[in-house]
Design goal:
This protein is an alpha/beta fold and about 300 residues long. The chain is about 45% helix and about 15% strand.
């Protein structure tokens, strides 16, 4: 079970941090960027080279500290086909360092299209009877708003290939309430979504009591996290919004169970941009930031 592998990776390092690998041009230290511009000019190819060097340095700096990484596909899609090759190799590099890999692509569409998305990110593309892996991440973020025929192809690949999904439920962006807090039969929509995720994932339960279908619940929404955890102790949470977006460790206690399991907390800019604040090298600054986050999360008093 994919969720079991994630839990065991967290237990091994006593750290529920996910390192977000979400590069932007202004995230790259000048020394790295200038090297590729000199070689390839001011081109998408130069950015691709810089992005790959950047995320590789972050992985190498933090792989003994964090159990997992999350690659935001949009950052790589913005650079075209070569950017998606960087995305693919980034997944391979992370896995070579023993890390659990979440592809943050927020996919979801009608059934046949979801099947193709799932084949790309989680499963296999069949060709002449040969199943061919594409990106082959361990988990994928999924948009639920097209209903069960949208989710089913992902769930089928989770069962077949031992993968996991995190379904958007209560996100950390400011305008999320415009949709996610709409009242449906007396309850906010995000609770209804969580119910559906739980029901659909019931056949995919792991040895620690968590389902292979998890939810995204933002760190900036501590009250919603408390409510969702009370309603669904069986759902594993992916928690974005820590640090730069305003979420703090003190507001995350309810995401975890009494054993400190049940959630992973993403941090992208706080680790990847630490070099800008400290003046240290990319790797040294990232490592210090990852250790500081680990220690901050370890201070949580689980209930």
């Amino acid at each position: 079970m994919s969720v079991d592998r994630l839990i065991e990776a967290i237990d091994e390092k006593q750290n529920p941090t996910v390192l977000g690998l979400d590069p932007q041009p202004d995230h790259i230290p000048p020394g790295i960027l200038d090297t590729f511009v000199e070689e390839r000019g001011k081109t998408l190819s130069a950015l691709c080279g810089a992005y790959e060097a950047y995320i590789t340095a972050l992985i190498e700096a933090a792989s003994d500290i964090v159990p997992a990484v999350k690659l935001q596909s949009a950052c790589y899609e913005a650079l075209g086909p070569e950017g998606m090759e960087v995305f693919r190799r980034g997944i391979q590099t992370a896995r070579a360092h023993g890390l659990y890999v979440i592809a943050d692509a927020k996919r979801g569409d009608i059934g046949s299209t979801s099947k193709a998305y799932s084949a790309a990110f989680l499963g296999r593309t069949e060709f002449a009877g040969v199943p061919l892996p594409v990106f082959d991440a361990d988990a994928l973020t999924v948009n639920p708003y097209l209903g069960s025929d949208n989710l089913n192809p992902f769930l089928q690949d989770c069962e077949k290939y031992g993968k996991m999904v995190f379904v958007l439920t209560k996100t950390s962006n400011p305008s999320a309430a415009e949709v996610q807090e709409q009242i449906v039969e007396g309850r906010p929509l995000y609770e209804v979504i969580a119910d559906q995720v739980s029901a659909s994932g019931r056949p995919l339960a792991g040895r620690y009591g968590y389902l292979n279908t998890g939810i995204v619940a933002g760190a900036t929404q501590p009250e919603a996290i408390r409510q969702l955890r009370a309603l669904h102790p069986e759902l594993f949470f992916l928690v974005p919004g820590y640090g730069a977006q305003g979420g703090s460790a003190s507001g995350l206690a309810a995401a975890f169970d009494r054993d400190g399991r049940g959630a992973v907390v993403n941090n992208s800019r706080g680790i990847g941009l630490a070099w800008k604040k400290t003046g240290k090298s990319l790797g040294d600054a990232a490592r210090e930031a990852a250790l500081a986050m680990r220690d901050d999360l370890r201070s949580i008093q689980y209930k």
